[in-house]
Write the structure tokens for this entry.
Amino acid sequence: MGFLKDLVKIPFDMVKAIWKCLMEGGKKSRVQSSNQDSKAQATLLVAAPGSFTPPAPATPPILGAFDPSTLSCEKHEVTVDAIIDYVDKWGNATRREITTEEIYDYEDGVVVIRAFCHRRKDYRTFISSRIKYWVDSNSGKPVSLQNLANYLVKASQVDLTSIALNIPSTEGAEIQVFIHTAGNYTQNTYTSRNGLTYYRISLQLVNALVDYLLGLPRSRTLTESLNSEQFDEVKDILRSHLQTIKVTDTQAFLAKKILRESELSRRKNLVDFARTALAGMPAQGSVVQLLDDELLDPSFRIPAPKSFFNPQANPEQKKELDEYLSKLAAEKQQSVADIKSESEQAEIEVDDAISDELPRSKARAKKYRKSAELNVIRNLARQECHNQLLINLQEETLIFEREPFEQEIRKRVCALLTNQEISRYGDMMLPYLGNGIQFGYLVTGLKKKNRGWYPNESGKVVIDLNNIQRD
């Protein structure tokens, strides 16, 4: 049944020791004034105990109740100005003027808010359960605290950043396959200092890809209410996002697998786009021919069912899954090092922007978004979650409890990090972990609405790999 049988319960004394170490380390980090949610404090206790040396005795904070239904969380980009009354974990009440950047929405209604605090002149984290008053700075109207989560999620749905980053979410396979194939034949590659080769595309092809994505029916639905200025901003955000994407051979391997099982029209559209985007380039013929051979081969001309795949019933699919997981295992050390390197550089850019740019400036927002997209915790959690879901599929462990699964993913991510790296993120460690796991579910094809997870007859939330689906 895989690793779930081997979970070890951490004694409460060890739990307190781990937490005290994190609190001591967090005081030295650049997020030292951030606030902790009691629920979040409890869930961080999954870090491997052997990697911590407890500090001198100190009074630990009160640990809140642990709710296994709210481990992972959704992330939304949302920019709103507000004045709030906030009570920190020590009971100190302050009034803050903030500009939000992103929120982490838990299933029980608690929201972790990452915002620029105009008082501290830096980014801070606020927990919705500690907010006592919220006023929209632009309208001057108070927001019901009972409705705060809905208010922020609704605001994110019309936020230009959120709209832009949602556009490529269901076309991830097309994006990866196009970047990999075009990058290969235009020789736009580079090898990281850790030894992994990545494929990219030129700005010309990025612009073509932006136009292609914005022309899709789903994108038109998202952008139809925008004026020309707003549409141009969405386009700029999407362009910046696509410029950060680079693809490995292993990523392209799975992306092609996904496309081969999609509708014929989806595959034909990508081939037609490649033919147009590379018109006049020497690489056009090679790119189009390869995509045609790999995506429009006669064996793929009949639209496939919506299910992802069933390697238990299909030996060829089992072979492909084994090969993919083997590739991932071989490059894991290099990919982790690259994720860390990119995240560190993006955070340096944000730190520089804090002193150079106004809170609502597009330059700062762009650097903050890049940092959030490349965040090491979020991406390591996504990678670990996605890989383990596929391993469970490989081992035919198709239904398993969500709580111990997510706790194990947290342990694995913590094991990939140093004490300094863990303490650096302070109170944002758990939201990043939680959203990374949620991201891992989504890229694997698991969604709540498709019963990717649900309460079983005993009331325990389970993951069900039988319900993997691709949009």
The longest helix spans residues 315-356.
